[in-house]
Design goal:
19% helix, 16-stranded antiparallel beta barrel
C-alpha cells in the first residue's frame, strides 16, 4: 500500500470509529478507578488512558521513529490507539523492540479490523484505477437528435411521415509521446439508408449497436505527419482546404473527390509549412482486412487520394484528386478543386468548388457547389447550392439547396432548424423537400 493511502486511511478509520469511542467512554465512566493502575493490561477495557502503559508506549514509539502523528493528551479509544499504531508502524525501518511487539499483540484484533478496511480500500482503488482512461487519453463525443419530415420523400414518394432519428459518436484520442495520437471512433445510429435524412452529414446507419468506425495512429517527423491504421477513411487525411463551408447538413462540397465512402487499411502522409502550403497523399485498401484479398492486391479495391493547397490570410484554395483501381468493378477517377474567401469587412465566408468523376462504368459527372455562411444574431446562417450534371442522362441530373441556422444554446448544445431541397433522380418521381430540427449535444 502506498504511503499516502495509509495517511488517508488512518483519519478515515478514526472518523468511522468515533461513535464507538463515544459509546465506550459512556460505558466506562463508572469504572475508571478499576483500571487506573499504570501496570494493568488494557485489552479488557474499551479506552486507553494517559496513565496506561500502552499510551506511554505509543508516545515512545512516535518519538523514537519520528512518526508523523499527533498523540493526544486525553483518553483515546482502543481503535484510535490501533489506528495511530498502524500509521506509525509504516515509519519503522528497524527491528521492533519488545515494547513495540507488545503493542502489536495488545491491539492485534483492532489492527486486523483496520487492515481489512485498508485491504478493501486498496481493492477499491485498484478497481477504480483499472476503469480509468490513461492520463493521456481524452474522450469527446456527441449525441444528435434529428426530427423532421420530407414531402414526397424517397424514390417511392411515400416517406413523408414526421419522424425522429438519432446518431451517437465517441472520439477517443490517446497520446503516448505528446506529439502523437491514437484515434478511435465509435458510432451508433438508427437512420435507414432509404430515408430522406440518411444523406444528412450527421446520419449514422449502422444500427443500434456501437461500432468502431475509425482506428488509426498519427505521428510527426519534422513537418510531415504520418498516419496509418486498419480503419482509415478516404477523406480522413486531406490537407488541402477547397471549401470552408461546414458541409454539416444535407449538401456539401466535393461530393466525388472527398466523398469518404471508402474505409479500410491505409497509410497517409501530410505536409504543411509556415508559408501556408499544404499537401497530402493517402492509400486505402478497402479489403485490406480480408485474408482472401489483402493489401495492394489485384482482388481488392485500392484508393489513392492526393491533395495540395494554399491557406492564406482570409483566402485559400485546394485541389483533390482520387483514384480507385476498380478491382471490385467500382473504379473511378476524380478531380476537384475550390477556393474560399473570408472578407475582413463582414462576418461571412464564401466557398466555390468544382468536382468531376469519371467512373469505369457509367457516365461522367460534374458538380458545382456554392456555399455561404454568415454570422447573424447569436448564430450562423448557412446557404448552400449545388448542381450535378451527368453526361448522357437528364434523369440523373440533380439540383439541391439548403438553408440552415445554427444556434448555440451554450457551449455543449446546438440547435439547427433548416430546410433542404433535393431533385429526385429517379424518373417519374417527385422531388424531395425536407424540414428538420437537428439538436447536437456535445461532450
Amino acid at each position: 500500500m502506498k504511503l499516502f493511502q495509509r495517511l488517508l486511511v488512518a483519519p478515515a478509520a478514526l472518523g468511522l470509529l468515533a461513535p464507538m469511542a463515544v459509546n465506550a467512554a459512556e460505558l466506562n465512566l463508572n469504572g475508571v478507578s478499576d483500571y487506573s493502575d499504570a501496570n494493568q493490561e488494557v485489552q479488557s477495557f474499551s479506552d486507553v488512558y494517559p496513565t496506561d502503559w500502552a499510551f506511554q508506549a505509543l508516545t515512545n514509539l512516535a518519538e523514537t521513529h519520528g512518526c508523523n502523528v499527533s498523540i493526544p493528551s486525553e483518553t483515546i479509544s482502543r481503535y484510535e490507539a490501533a489506528a495511530l499504531l498502524n500509521k506509525c508502524l509504516s515509519a519503522v525501518s528497524t527491528e521492533l523492540t519488545t515494547e513495540e511487539r507488545r503493542l502489536i499483540d495488545e491491539f492485534s484484533s483492532e489492527l486486523a479490523v483496520i487492515e481489512s478496511r485498508i485491504d478493501g480500500i486498496d481493492e477499491g482503488v485498484g478497481e477504480f484505477e483499472a476503469g480509468q482512461f490513461s492520463s493521456t487519453t481524452t474522450m469527446s463525443g456527441a449525441a444528435v437528435f434529428n426530427v423532421g419530415s420530407a414531402s414526397d420523400g424517397g424514390t417511392d414518394d411515400t416517406l413523408d411521415s414526421f419522424y425522429m432519428t438519432y446518431a451517437y459518436g465517441i472520439d477517443l484520442n490517446t497520446s503516448f509521446r505528446g506529439t502523437d495520437t491514437l484515434y478511435v471512433g465509435v458510432e451508433s445510429g438508427n437512420a435507414s439508408s432509404g430515408d430522406p435524412f440518411a444523406n444528412m452529414d450527421s446520419a449514422v446507419t449502422n444500427g443500434a449497436g456501437l461500432q468502431v468506425t475509425s482506428m488509426f495512429y498519427s505521428f510527426p517527423i519534422g513537418n510531415v505527419e504520418i498516419t496509418a491504421g486498419p480503419l482509415l477513411d478516404q477523406d480522413d487525411v486531406i490537407a488541402a482546404t477547397p471549401s470552408v463551408y461546414s458541409d454539416a447538413f444535407r449538401h456539401g462540397s466535393l461530393p466525388f473527390s472527398a466523398a469518404g465512402d471508402e474505409t479500410g487499411s491505409g497509410v497517409a502522409l501530410a505536409y504543411a509549412n509556415d508559408a501556408g502550403f499544404v499537401t497530402s497523399v493517402s492509400y486505402i485498401a478497402v479489403d485490406g482486412f480480408d485474408a482472401a484479398k489483402g493489401l495492394a492486391s489485384n482482388d481488392g479495391s485500392d484508393v489513392t487520394t492526393f491533395s495540395a493547397g494554399y491557406n492564406g490570410d482570409g483566402f485559400g484554395a485546394g485541389l483533390v484528386i482520387a483514384y480507385n483501381d476498380g478491382d471490385n468493378s467500382d473504379g473511378y477517377d476524380t478531380f476537384g478543386g475550390g477556393v474560399y474567401w473570408t472578407p475582413e469587412s463582414m462576418p461571412a465566408t464564401f466557398s466555390v468548388t468544382y468536382d468531376s468523376k469519371n467512373p469505369e462504368t457509367g457516365d461522367d459527372s460534374t458538380d458545382l457547389f456554392l456555399g455561404i455562411e454568415y454570422e447573424t444574431g447569436p448564430g450562423t446562417l448557412g446557404i448552400a447550392y449545388h448542381s450535378t450534371d451527368v453526361d448522357g442522362s437528364t434523369t440523373l441530373d440533380e439540383i439541391g439547396y439548403e438553408v440552415v441556422y445554427s444556434y448555440p444554446v451554450n457551449d455543449n448544445i446546438t440547435v439547427v432548424p433548416g430546410l433542404f431541397f433535393a431533385e429526385e433522380t429517379t424518373a417519374g418521381k417527385q422531388d424531395d423537400t425536407g424540414v428538420f430540427v437537428e439538436t447536437t449535444f456535445s461532450f
